[in-house]
Amino acid sequence: MNLKTVFSQNKLCPVRSLGDGQVIMAPSGDTTHSLEDIGVFIWNQLDGQQNLQNVLDAILEEYDVNEDEARTDLLEFIDQMQAEGLILET
What is the CATH number of domain 6-84? Predict the structure, then answer.
């Protein structure tokens, strides 16, 4: 995976908003994942049109964070979300 990769939310995953966060159920239906703040922000960026570089740019514009740290955290987050089946590479 690189920053040119595009992901979309898995439409088979039910999503519920709770306060400022979101809870996403895995497609298997046996686990849930809670997102808050930047996790919700990233989730909302994964629309199947923007590549990860666009998502990283949006994070850098929205949050006061070091670019290298943001890139590392974003790629780790994407790896975890993909491994759980919550997002799909398009």
Answer: 1.10.10
